[in-house]
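FAQ: What does the model actually see?

It sees only this:
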Amino acid sequence: MATQAQSSCSCSAVLTVTVEGTQLDIRAASREQPDALRTTLIKALGLVKLSPSDLTLLQLQEKFRVSLEGTRSKTPDRLSAVVYSCKRGTIQETLWEAQVWRYGGTQLVDAVHSAIGSVSLDGKQSSDTMALHLLEVGGQPAVTAFHLMNCPANLEEFGKVKDKFFAYGGTFALAACAVAISDNVQVMALLERLPPNHKRELVAHLFCVRPHSDFFCIVQVVFTSKERPQTKRCRIGPAPRKPRNREGERAATTIEEDEQPCKRRARRPLTQHATDMACQRVLPQPSPTARRENPNEPATAFKG
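And it is asked to produce this:
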């Protein structure tokens, strides 16, 4: 299927690649002729005006692709907590995590709805045919979710598990952000300043990538988890560091701690030995030669 790019003027463009007389869609060309496709697309981008957010989107697409295709051995920190909060609707709507959750869920629901609506399982076509169509319109995440939801055969069955498809799409998108940020913390800063329409395009790009099987294991574990995460911080990415005071201690973070008066360390009383040592450092001492010549004679002024 050819990739469609939605522009700001509500005009869509379908891109096809011709290689030695054979027309290929973008996905097929990326697999069969990646070098030729890369060179052609770079030349094409040089003919159009790109905004800073366009360049940021290109950077993020590459970083996400590398992260999704890599091996994984650990679930990113706080991913389960964020997904749990999104499912319950308790996350702040203005956060980028909430936006990515909605875009991911909508992307998957629309893809599966389109596939089921155009391919009916009435005995003439198998579930494998549906899987192939899902792969074209929604990528591997759509196929995985379809089998995870027991392969709904029609739109009526799909309507009963529509919320689960939405949750899986949101979990997939948030997991992609979490692994990309864990690989490169700069991804979070790029993602936060990306405008909403480019965030939506980035999420759509994620469904076109072929992630590693380790990543799908992470998504399934988080999606099927019933346990409530025990964490107070509900954000993806590294936790902000607390500022340090002059003594090198962590600064107070709660209102109760800030309202408490500062406790000064009590001074120890000076001993006689400490007093004598302080006087020796302050009072001037006569030279050893003067003490040997006349130790008992008081000092007199020199007269010329």
